[in-house]
Amino acid sequence: MKINLIVVGKLKEKFLVDGVAEYLKRIKKFSTIEVREIAECRTVEEEGQKILSQVPQNSWLCVLDVAGETLSSEDFAKKISALNLNGTSNLTFAIGGAFGLSEELRRAAMFRLSLSKMTFTHQMARLILVEQIYRAFKINRNEPYHW
User: Fold this and answer.
1) How would you write 10-32 as a 3-class SS string?
2) What is the pLDDT of residues 44-57, one digit of tens each?
């Protein structure tokens, strides 16, 4: 399985850089993962177009969206497992910038995921997402981690 993260902006805080790097290293034991950062744009429409231009062809696209569906860690793991079992080998997760997502990007997504009813910075969302991806692999392998 190949995982792509397409994100707006660079991480600025050292604790976020270090945390994301740690989970990316852990994920690489289970899957290849690539992070593509795009520059912040003047409009969400422009950011949406840039994100969509980076989505690999035939990749399953999930956008992080405040209005998306919330899942437990176990349900997120089941979704990843089901995609893998159904032959989906390329997953892309997109995190928009500070002002959200374009409607074009929302429509293009196969799934819209909300991390929480709480609001997080898009930089914090990156750390939470990579931790949850790692947790999903551990859950799917019945390995201890989530307790």
Assistant:
1) CCCCHHHHHHHHHHHHHHCCCCE
2) 999 999 999 999 99
